[in-house]
Write a structure and sequence with these properties.
This protein is an alpha/beta fold and 343 residues long. It has 11 helices and 12 strands. Strands 1-10-11-5-2 form a 5-stranded mixed beta sheet. Helix 4 crosses helix 7.
């Protein structure tokens, strides 16, 4: 049986189609649905191209980098391999789904979000008498644009240095680049949660030892965590972004040392706690800081571009200073859905 993927002519122009990734262009030329019931079912169009040129990218039997460059056509697949490996590293370190309410795909650099600031009267579900005016919730466009940031790393390596390296090992290097890029995006998200997105919507800040939070500055007990939790009505404190030193103090609280919590952590890696919020430890949060949020209402992530690589350089074996980038930004949704506690 002749398969269509063996006949596709690959060229650099497939990376340049506006609004489409290389994988999407391939999928359009070679739809996966045509392979149902065949040995290639479950593979996407790019993976079928790897099969076509017998390139193994993972496992003990993985090929060397130079296998991509045996033919002009197979060389075109190399930038997509780089992008996928970087994307895998980003996903491995990605905590953004745990702190963002929604993700908006946007083709451009100037994004203006919407917002609503309901008054106490507007938030109340009042009884409406016959003929009375129904309370309104006004949705407006933000005054200032949301800043999108290009984050990336430069891949610096000569082709001669990596040509004989196994793809499985080279993937580890690329995944680390992805991890670093995701760390930059997380730092951007935390900055917006704390300081706002330029639209006068910085988070409310509380400090241990200053009303309404009791205690002594520099120490954190379960009482202060409860008092912080109590500031979120009508929102729900369901996520805590915590600096490493603050996490240590939290875990030393006797209320967090329930044996069942320990068993759950050992079995799943997930930390549960008495207030029901997800604990996320990250050094991207400043020392002595706890950021609490209602992840369903606090933050919008805007993606202007997925992982992008300089495909011309990579196809032509010019790995020296080949940029790998990703463009994203963050907008604050409901200002009071995120608050900061300083120990």
């Amino acid at each position: 049986m002749a398969y269509k993927f063996n006949e596709i002519r690959l060229d650099k122009g497939m990376y340049g189609e506006r609004g489409k990734s290389f994988a999407q262009v391939l999928e359009k030329l070679d739809p996966s649905e045509d392979y149902k019931g065949t040995a290639y079912e479950g593979l996407d169009a790019y993976q079928r191209q790897l099969k076509r040129f017998d390139i193994k990218v993972r496992g003990t039997g993985s090929d060397s980098v130079e296998k991509f460059f045996h033919t002009t056509d197979s060389a075109v697949l190399f930038p997509e391999y780089v992008a996928r490996s970087v994307r895998q590293g980003m996903e491995e370190e990605n905590v953004l789904p745990s702190i963002t309410a929604t993700v908006t795909k946007f083709d451009g650099m100037d994004y203006r979000s919407i917002y609503s600031v309901p008054t106490d009267d507007a938030k109340s579900l009042r009884r409406i008498e016959e003929g009375a005016i129904i309370p309104q919730t006004e949705v407006k466009v933000r005054e200032n644009l949301v800043k999108l940031h290009k984050r990336g790393r430069m891949l610096v390596a000569s082709y001669e240095a990596v040509r004989f390296q196994k793809l499985d090992l080279f993937s580890v290097m690329l995944r680390q680049i992805g991890s670093q890029i995701m760390r930059m995006h997380l730092e951007d998200a935390i900055d917006v949660l704390v300081n706002g997105d330029g639209n006068t919507n910085a988070a409310s800040k509380f400090a241990v030892g200053t009303l309404p939070i009791s205690g002594t500055a520099g120490t954190l007990t379960y009482n202060q965590i409860l008092e912080f939790w109590n500031q979120f009505d009508p929102y729900t404190l369901n996520t805590l972004l915590v600096s490493p030193d603050a996490m240590l103090q939290i875990l030393k609280c006797s209320e967090f040392q329930n044996p069942l919590t320990g068993l759950n952590f050992q079995g799943t890696g997930e930390l549960t706690n008495p207030i029901g919020a997800k604990l996320i430890k990250t050094s991207a949060v400043s020392n002595g800081t706890v950021i609490g949020l209602d992840r369903g209402y606090a933050l919008e992530m805007i993606q202007a571009a997925d992982v992008s690589v300089e495909y011309d350089r990579l196809i032509d074996r010019q790995l020296e200073r080949a940029a790998i980038t990703s463009i994203s930004g963050f907008a604050k949704l409901y200002t009071e859905a995120a608050k900061v506690l300083t120990i």
